[in-house]
Please model this.
Amino acid sequence: MLILLPPSEGKTAAVRGNPLALDDLRLPVLNPARAKVIDALVELCTTRPDEAVDILGVPKTQPELVTLNAGLLDAPAARADRVYTGVLYDALSPATLSPAAKRRATGRVMVTSSVFGLVGLADRIPAYRLSGDTTLPGVGGIQAHWRSHLGAGLTEALGDGLLVDLRSGTYAAFWRPDEVSARTATVRVLHEHNGQRKVVSHFNKATKGRLVRALLESGANPRTPAKLADTFRDLGWTVEVGAPTNKGTQLDVVVAEI
Model:
């Protein structure tokens, strides 16, 4: 089983530690594509910082984010599960997983990244600022860049298991699971109130974090979207299964409380 998460826009920079070592990351097949993004990002932020503010969508009040990117190769790196922060990662709380669940998370969970393509939770990376919908000079559109490179990495990481795709729309465009759609489950969280259902962004992220945490702690390893739905039901969630599509089978997790 491979669980794909979106990154967080906010990141916690390490204050000490060794710098990035690409050869130590999972999926070295992605390293040439990673290096191309890193080199272009560092060059932009080092030589044209004012232009970088506009290209990267950096708030005028946070010029330090450009400086962060300029020092990407020399900055301290930390585990990805400490760098990525925000609602989903707070709910997942990797640091408080049981030892067995931590081992499962290391092997089964990967984060989609504009800079690195995919990283495991134990991969050591620096904090950065690069959104998935950016057009980066020297690289082009980040989504298109990774669409042409992620296939080999994902095939290696997935093997013959189930893909649990929790990416948001921006990062789902990095790669489409056409060839493995029959064993791909996407998850949507719906809040039901007074007979009406809607997606609430903040709660959607928190619930996805809780779902992944519960799945890792359970030790379950479902092989199909239907079995994953059964697993979530066994864990106390209300789940409805949609029809298979070329994007996978959508599981709607229906919750009544925010």
Observations:
- The radius of gyration is 18 Å.
- The chain has one domain: 2-255.
- The longest helix spans residues 201-218.
- Residues 39 and 141 are 15 Å apart (CA to CA).
